[in-house]
Amino acid sequence: MQYGAIVVTFNRKQLLIESITALLNQTVPPAKIIIIDNHSTDGTKAELQTADILANPSVDYRYLTKNIGGAGALLGDADCGGGSELGLGFNVR
Predict the structure, then answer these.
(1) Confidence at residue 35, expressed as pLDDT on a 0 to 100 scale
(2) Got the DSSP string for 31-88?
(3) What is the C-alpha separation between 62 and 39, in angstroms, rounded?
(4) Rounded Cα–Cα distance for residues 37 and 70 (Å)
(5) The model's pTM
(6) Which helix or strand (DSSP H or E) is residue 19 part of?
């Protein structure tokens, strides 16, 4: 089984790293993980680079030029490609 995951984030860099690391460490990891950064201003991309997450070929990072809300962020980016299942996640606590 192949599946993909989409994670929408906004200024939650530490929780995002925990979430993506957990996805990558699954027994069957997603074929593709799309991270939609909803215009974070807390250094999210730099933190992902430091954690070496963006070097993973299954991770696709997309930065939005303005915050359009969680639902808006998903509307244009819901295609994970290659998988028959799709997991959606908002990294909120």
Answers:
(1) 95
(2) SEEEEEE-S--S-HHHHHHHTT-TTSTTEEEEE-SS--HHHHHHHT-----S-SEEEE
(3) 10
(4) 10
(5) 0.81
(6) helix 13-24
